[in-house]
Design goal:
This protein has helices spanning about 5-15, 20-30, 45-75, 110-115, 125-140, 160-175, 195-205, 205-224; strands at about 80-85, 90-95, 100-105, 150-155, 185-190. By secondary structure, it is of the alpha+beta class. It has a five-stranded mixed sheet, with helices on both faces.
Length: about 220
């Protein structure tokens, strides 16, 4: 008997000894209304890694969420600029990056009269300035003899501060040119310094007025 014939005989014998029962098993399962469920097993090591990855993902979500929350809080609740209005009343308006009012602070008794019981929290800056200028006109602090107002902007960004100064100057100029009233607006951007802070705190005035006083004193000293 050749090797090939011998191999064929062994193969046929093996097939008879291990019958194909797959069709019978499937048929039996169908009769009983059951299916075959394939399951996979995971090792403890895989489970540990899955748990770690899930924990890291949760931490990452919390970190990103906290970052967005902190950024939103800074934009909405942090003072980005302080606008000072000085006639005789001295008033500071603190605003956020969206130019929404956080607080209006009268710095003297006349300022308290102008603010009165008005609550500007959350108001648009332009609306607030309009209301305060209107109150100054109504209470006689702006009139034909006292027709000048100083607007000062002290901002965290020089670019935004300069732009805000320009817009407010134009807006207040419009307000002071109505009904035959001819007012004058002087505006400036505040340059912060320890000397300026000390002067403003000592005399209870706005940083804008303190800076104007400094500039006048420098000019006087330069002339002598």
């Amino acid at each position: 008997m050749t090797d090939r014939k011998l191999n064929d005989k062994i193969r046929r014998a093996f097939e008879k000894a291990t019958p194909d029962v797959l069709d019978a098993v499937l048929s039996e399962c169908n009769k009983k209304g059951q299916g075959i469920t394939m399951t996979t097993t995971r090792t403890k090591e895989k489970d540990r890694w899955i748990g770690k990855l899930a924990g890291l993902a949760a931490c990452l979500c919390l970190f990103v969420g906290a970052g967005f929350g902190a950024a939103a809080y800074r934009v909405n609740h942090t003072v980005d600029a302080t606008v000072s209005l000085d006639v005789n009343p001295s008033i500071e308006i603190q605003v956020n990056q969206k130019e929404r009012v956080l607080d209006v602070i009268p710095l003297n008794e006349d300022g308290k009269v102008i603010v009165g019981t008005m609550d500007f929290s959350g108001s648009d800056l332009n609306v607030t300035v309009n209301a305060l200028i209107g109150s100054m006109l109504q209470n006689g602090y702006l009139n034909d003899r006292a027709n000048s107002i100083l607007i000062s902007v002290d901002g965290s960004s020089q670019t935004r501060g300069a732009a805000l100064q320009g817009r407010l100057t134009a807006e207040v100029n419009k307000l002071l040119q109505k009904d035959g009233f001819n007012g004058a607006v002087l505006s400036q951007t505040v340059v912060q310094s320890e000397e300026l802070e000390t002067l403003a705190a000592e005399y209870g005035i706005t940083r804008g007025r303190a800076q104007l006083i400094q500039e006048i004193l420098r000019e006087l000293l330069a002339e002598t």
